[in-house]
Specification:
Elements lengths: L7 E5 L3 H13 L3 E5 L2 H10 L4 E7 L1 E2 L2 E2 H11 L5 E5 L3 H8 L6 E4 L4 H16 L6
Parallel strand pairs: 1-2, 1-3, 3-6, 6-7
Antiparallel strand pairs: 4-5
Helix pairs in contact: 2-3
């Protein structure tokens, strides 16, 4: 990816296999990555270095904190960081659960590696103004 100190993509998922898979895919695509197995762990990472987080990829359903509450806390800590939500729920169910949060980036589980990289690229491009927004 180049650059002096590349920003990190934070992945949060309570399913260890999915977390490892997503981190592996993104690392192979050239991203610097960090992972958390729950919402609080992810929030701790963001709280330590919000400026160093380029994007968050999070599962909608995790123990201890629902997706809506987690998005709210992420927005409080890092208001401009793009959030990509992943879930096994239908697009419609995700839209209902996240209504009013401002999150529109979604990827359905299970996903292919190329789809994850492409969706993340779109989310990052939308924030940087380089196009790719829907």
């Amino acid at each position: 990816m180049g650059g002096d100190s590349p920003a990190t993509i934070l992945v949060m998922d309570d399913e260890p296999g999915i977390l490892r898979f997503a981190l592996h895919v993104l690392k192979n695509a050239g991203y610097q990555v960090a992972g958390a197995g729950d919402g609080q762990g992810g929030l701790d990472i963001v709280a330590r270095d919000a400026a160093g987080i380029a994007a968050v990829i999070m599962d909608l359903n995790m123990p201890g904190m629902d997706g809506r509450a987690l998005v709210g806390e992420l927005r409080r800590l890092a208001p401009d960081v793009p959030i990509l939500v992943m879930s096994g729920y239908s697009d419609e169910e995700v839209a209902v659960r996240l209504d009013g949060t401002g999150v529109s980036n979604f990827i359905h589980k299970p996903f292919r590696p190329a789809d994850l990289v492409e969706r993340l690229g779109r989310a990052l491009a939308a924030v940087s103004g380089t196009g790719g927004a829907r």
